Structure formats: C-alpha cells, structure tokens
Amino acid sequence: MQFELEHAIEILGQTPSALRAMLGNLSEEWTHGGSREDWSPYDIVGHLINAEHTNWIPRAKVILAQAENAAFEPFDRYVQFEISKDKTLHELLEDFESARSESLMRLEALEITPEKLALRAAHPDLGEVNLAQLLSTWAVHDLGHIRQIVTFMAKKYSDSVGPWKQYLSILK
Q1: Which tens digit of pLDDT belongs to each residue from 115-132?
Q2: Rounded CA gap, 20 and 26, in Å?
Q3: Does the structural domain 5-171 have CATH classification 1.10.520.20?
Q4: What is the CA radius of gyration of the chain?
Q5: How far is CA 54 from the centre of its chain?
Q6: Domain residue spans of the chain
Q7: Letter string b/e over residues 105-128, b meaning 16 or more CB atoms within 10 A of that residue's CB
Q8: Rounded-to-10 torsion of CA 23, 27, 30, 32
Q9: How far out from the chain centre does Cα 171 lie?
Q10: Phi-psi map region of 99: left, alpha, beta (phi>0 left; psi -120 to 50 alpha)
C-alpha cells in the first residue's frame, strides 16, 4: 500500500478512542508495572503525548520550512517516565486525545501537497528523510504501540494460560 495522507489520518484519528476503549476502565494491574525496557500501557500513552508535542508536527514544520541544513532536534523517547509520573492513566488518555486533536488540526493547516511530501530534512540518526516518510512513520508508530500495549497485557497471563501458551502467538 502506497502512502496516502488520508489513509494515515484514518489511523491517527482513531488511536485516541481506541486507547480509551482498550484501557479506560481497566485496573492498574493491567496498565502499570512496566520498566524502562518493557513499557506498560501507562508508559506508552505518556510517550505518545510527548511525541505529539515534540515530534510529528514540529518535524513536519522543519521539513516544510526548507531552511538550509534543515535538521530535526533529537527526540527523547524516555521523558514520559518523568513528565507523566504524577498523572493518572485517565488524565493521560485525556491529554493524548487533546494533543492528537490539535496535531491533526495543525496537520490540516499545513495544506500538504504531493510536492510537499517529497521535501526533506536531516534526522539525527537516520540521515535524510522526506515528509511522506515522516507521516507514514507517525501512523505506523501508533500501530506499533497498540501492538506493544496488547502484548504487555497478554504477558500478564503468560503463566496462567497453561498448555494453551503454545497456541498463543502473542506470548511467544
């Protein structure tokens, strides 16, 4: 499937409600207890909020500005452990919903054209990337973290499923 902005926006627009439906009424036993290496759903929602504020739209603007030597600021993938620590998951889900709504409005205001999708800037680790790649990554990033959330939760019952574990690919 080739990148089309409308299709990416379909995913980006659904992620907040999908997370709220999946996590909104669960106990902390399901949503907390991760580590720096094995993020919990709580940690992931905090990470998604940080990315809304410092990654996707700010980097799109860097690309679109087409300044000489345009380069992205490095992204701190672990700052959520500090900035989320005093919030409830409910508050984080609300913050994410609000931040994503704002990001999608800002994306629409950028009036992305096929020509703009080809514009480039420098990523600190990956080198030159274009706007289409950034926006594609944004949608896939959401999907990857949804997978990470359900995998974290499934592992909570890894021992409890007994011999059925061999049939549950999510536990392998």
Answers
A1: 999 999 999 999 999 999
A2: 10
A3: no
A4: 18
A5: 12
A6: 5-171
A7: eebeeeebeeebbebebebeeeee
A8: 90
A9: 22
A10: alpha
